[in-house]
Amino acid sequence: MIPVPGFDGKRIAMFGLGRTGLGVARALEAGGATVLGWDDGEARREEADKAGVQLEDLYKIDWSTVEALVLSPGVPLTHPKPHPLVEAARAAGKPVIGDMELFQRAIDATDKKVKLIAITGTNGKSTTTALIGHLVRHAGGNAQVGGNIGRAVLDLDPPQDGTVYVIEVSSYQLDLTTSFRPDVSVLLNITPDHLDRHGSFENYVAVKDRIFANQTGRGYAVFGVDSEPVAKLCTARCGEQAAAGSSEGGPKVIPVSARKALGRGVYVLGGKIYHSRSSRVEEAADLTDIPTLQGAHNWENAAAAFAAVRVLGYDTAKIAEGLTRFPGLAHRMEQVGEYPADKGGVRFINDSKATNADAAARALATYDRIFWIAGGVPKAGGIETLTEYFPKIEKAYLIGQAAQDFAATLEGRVRHTLSGTLEEAVAAAAHDAAGQDGAVVLLSPACASFDQFADFEKRGDAFRTAVRAVLDGKPAGAKAGAKAGGGAAA
């Protein structure tokens, strides 16, 4: 745990007592604050009470008696309208902040020499965060990985000389920051998402851009310039010379690309990472045979990770070696089964984390001869943007609330069936794919999971279980020696 200083003897209102909220409460109390915790959910209040958090109905408090409102990132700050407690705190002139802001204040108060790498983006940030942490550790560093992935940021180990904090940051968390200042900020990409919480795409982009807001010339800014909105932010923030890596008064710019060569920056061509510095270009790593980093989107993740770790002074050769040993993340293009075993036959790919069409596009672009399982709670726009990948899809198996709408989009273009449940979809897809070498049964839903599952992790776990059941039963066309692998998570 990282104690939060600066509130000794003061009362702090804490709303939202999930994983992040409980971590914040403990960290504030460790720093000497009195935390008044509340959550609208009775079960969470009971859990917090058992954890020793002092409960107080924040709807009834005198706001003049508290120093600030600390808000869980899942609570509406601005849209569709501010939460009533946000309005109450603001009316009383109290700041509304979040866990990342408190983390920054704790780092600022320490005399330990630490580094902070922060990663955001619509897609790929969890993989990139985990990969950066893995590379730092492989190169001999002490990486603490958390934030919007894994451990809550204030639940990480306290600062020690040499600690590198590798933090995934969501737009909700960035929206609650005022002084957040990473040494290395990474913005991978931006596509429309969470618009209900930010009001418009323009607002969403502006929130993502806040990851760079407080950086100085001592910092580094990594921009995924294959994403047009990110490329525009790069140009707008750093001026006309941003593409060349110059930013007067601001962070040093490092553009990254998986689509084109760059005069200065880090890019991937033909599966190889190149580090370009003016007239000097260095081939830094080969990604082509790394199973956990397949596809152009993972090449972009790897390029961003390489850039972020390299600027901290770690050896290029050690970084390249670390890339080959990356175990990958569960639910992100994770191979969970194959039959016949290890013979290049039908593979089962768990990409449950693909909760929107843009994320699903990354998986669809990676594979051929796809038996696609899709559906759930649909996002705005559905799957119309995926039409360029339809020729690669042998058949689609549609589940959840989106099934009928997706079927209408696919009608006349892709064979499909309304499977209803994930288990039925896996069984049907396995049967149809059997005997077709190179076929992929792909769960990449392009939807949220909440109609049938608590979250994307539970959906991915259910897919893995269904695959095991199918392979254990030896579906039509399967051969002896079939196996279902559990996959590895970083």
Concise description?
Helices cover about 30% and strands about 20% of the residues.
What does this structure look like?
With 490 residues, the protein is α/β, with parallel strands linked by helices. It has 15 helices and 21 strands. 31% of the residues lie in helices and 21% in strands. Helix 13 links the parallel strand 18 and strand 19 (416-420). The longest helix is centred in the last third of the chain and has 17 residues, at 456-472. The relative contact order is 0.09.
Which terms would index this structure?
single chain, 490 residues, 9-stranded mixed β-sheet, 15 helices, 31% helix
Count of alpha/pi helices: 15
Number-wise, the strands total 21
Q: What oligomeric state best describes the polypeptide chains here?
A: single chain
Overall 3D form: globular
The first-to-last residue Cα distance is: 21 Å
- The radius of gyration over CA amounts to 23 Å
What fraction strand? 15-25%
Topology:
Elements: E1 11-15, H1 19-30, E2 34-38, H2 42-50, E3 68-71, H3 84-91, E4 96-97, H4 99-109, E5 115-120, H5 125-138, E6 142-147, E7 163-168, H6 171-174, E8 184-187, H7 195-198, H8 201-209, E9 220-224, H9 228-238, E10 252-257, E11 264-269, E12 272-277, E13 280-286, H10 296-310, H11 316-324, E14 334-339, E15 346-350, H12 357-366, E16 370-375, E17 377-378, E18 393-399, H13 403-410, E19 416-420, H14 422-433, E20 440-443, E21 447-448, H15 456-472
Parallel strand pairs: 1-2, 1-3, 3-4, 5-7, 5-8, 6-7, 8-9, 9-10, 10-11, 15-20, 16-18, 16-20, 18-19
Antiparallel strand pairs: 11-12, 12-13, 14-15, 17-21
